[in-house]
Structures are given as structure tokens and as C-alpha cells.
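Service request form, structural biology core

Requester: graduate student, group of Dr. S.
Request type: structure prediction, single chain
Budget code: on file
Notes: please return the result as C-alpha cells.

Sequence provided:
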Amino acid sequence: MTELIFTFAHAISTPQAIHSTAEATADILSRTNTPDQETSPFCPSESPCRIRIRPTQQLLFVAGSKHMIDNTRGIERELWDQQWSYGECIFSEVVKRVGLERFSPRASTPLMGHLVGTMDTPSATRLDMGDVARAVACEVLSILRLKKVEYEHPIRNVVVVLPLEGGMGESVVSSLREALSSCWTGVEGPLRGVPISMEVMGPNT
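Core staff response, request fulfilled:
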């Protein structure tokens, strides 16, 4: 069983939001990595026993802006090369929290991570958010198809982490739901019919 955790953090632009988004993503990775318990079909009916099933792997996608945090005009090239984008900051925070060992093929549940950069700035309007969500969802689907996950490690469930900053609300949630429905569950591919749960983080989370 493969679990997909998708953090849509395109509009995140403050240090506090970056840290809280990374913390929430790492927490969900840890929570979903806990083995599920199921009744074994080989146990006698009068004495049911439980077996623990751990996911075969986890896939992490973080969508964040490619916009540089300190995008200052006239900055020296030497300093420019040291700048990080908002997406890179969130992704690195998640890696720091879960530990590099989780990305090892020898881990109990190997974790594969992908950073999906969005071209617009974090201040994109809510009307633009639907277009950004669809573009990101299509790119994630393309990566999954290239990896042929539906044949090797079928995805059984998806958890979406959606942090909201000031001024964002239900319209963003609706835009993301529509994008995932049209690009993922409603088309042929590794995510068709896969249940999607959404973890929405409020501005003060």
C-alpha cells in the first residue's frame, strides 16, 4: 500500500507559516506511517487475532512558490545563489523534521519526496489559485505516471495538507477540491477513485 501526502503551500510566505506547515506535514507523515491493524483471515473465528500492516511506501509532494524570499533588485550574484525560495524552505523544514533516514530505501517505510515549484508569487489572488492548483495537480499526476506507481505500488489513500493565511478561506478549499477532482480522481490513472482527505490549517494554526 502506498500513501500520498500532498502539501499545497503555494500561498505561504511568512516564517511562522512555513514552520507550522512543515510541522503539520511531518506530523501527518508520522501518523500515517503507523501500521494499521486488520483481522487476519487465517485466524479461527472464535479467536480473532490482529495483524499489523505497514504501508509499503509514502510519497510526499510539496507545492511551494519558486519566488525567492529576498528578491532584492541589484543583489550580488554571490548572495543571489544563497537565496532560497518559499517552496524550498518548506520542503527543507519537512526533511529536517522527519529525518534523512526516512528517505533511505532501507527504511521501514521508505519515503520519496518531490518539490513542485509554482511560478506565481505567494500573493496570487484567490481567483488565480484555481489555475495554480490545477497546474500543480497535473504535474503531480505526470510524475506518478512516469513512476508507474499504479502497477508497482498502487496508491490507496491521499492526505492533502492545506495551510491558509489571512484573507484565504473556503474559496481556496473549493478551488483545490475541484482541481484534484478534475485532474486526479476523475481521470484514468493512479489516483482514479482514490479517497482524498483534507487537513485544513487555519491562519492561527
